[in-house]
Amino acid sequence: MHRKKRILFTAHCILNQNAVIRGWERAKGGFNGIIQIILENNIAIVQLPCPEFTFLGENRPPMTKQEYDTEGYRKHSREILEIILKQFGEYITQGYSIVGILGIEGSPSCDTLREKGVFMEELLEMLAKQGIYVKTFDVPEDYLEGKDHYILKEFEEFIHQQV
After folding, report:
1. Rounded to an integer, what distance in angstroms lies between the CA atom of residue 149 and that of residue 143?
2. Distance between terminal CA atoms of the chain?
3. What is the pLDDT of residue 125?
4. Which of 14, 34, 86, 118 has its CA 20 to 30 A from that of 137?
5. Stated pTM of the model
6. How far apart are CA 145 and CA 105, in angstroms?
7. Which of 75, 76, 77, 161 is nearest to 119 (CA)?
8. What is the chain's mean pLDDT, rounded?
9. How confident is the model at residue 1, as a pLDDT?
10. Distance, CA of 35 to CA of 14 (rounded, Å)
11. Interval 123-157: pLDDT, tens
12. What is the CATH architecture assignment of 6-20+30-162?
């Protein structure tokens, strides 16, 4: 059986750089180096929805966390996270290991570590209300696909600590 029952939830743009603000792309499609590490460790990927894309569209302007931190955007985030919350619960009930959540450092929505983004704040709070706590890791702002970067080694170490 190929199923390893290990899952990593990722910010949308890890797999789809077309969703980021125009001109801010850091890879041609997705972050291949990071994706390769995930797959080499037999971990499945669940792509989170992009709240900024679904809220303001593809041609949105750059905004800060403070600009996104509105009741309307938080409500939108909670609504699109409902199905994700059900997925977390079902996977855990069925004995899967949630390796973690992979976010984007400095993102007003998807930073999981420093100044948590609005979307990740909502997700982590919704998970905590259900007694679900997971480790997080962020792709740094200076990561650029195709360049040798310290983060690949750190991310691989993070993955090995979780599995």
Report:
1. 7
2. 18
3. 98
4. 86
5. 0.94
6. 15
7. 77
8. 95
9. 61
10. 8
11. 999 999 999 999 999 999 999 888 878 999 999 99
12. 3-Layer(aba) Sandwich (3.40)
Distances from the Cα of 154 to the Cαs of 40, 75, 90, in angstroms?
Answer: 15, 34, 29
Nearest-angstrom CA–CA distance, 41 and 29: 21
Q: Which amino acid is at 45?
A: I
- Residue 40's Cβ-count burial label (10 Å; 0-12, 13-18, 19+) is exposed
Residue 95's region, left for phi above 0, alpha for psi from -120 to 50, else beta, is left
Specify which residues 101 forms β-bridges with. 9, 136
What's the pLDDT score for residue 163? 73
Identify whether the C-beta of residue 139 lies closer than 8 Å to the C-beta of residue 103.
yes
pLDDT of residue 27: 87
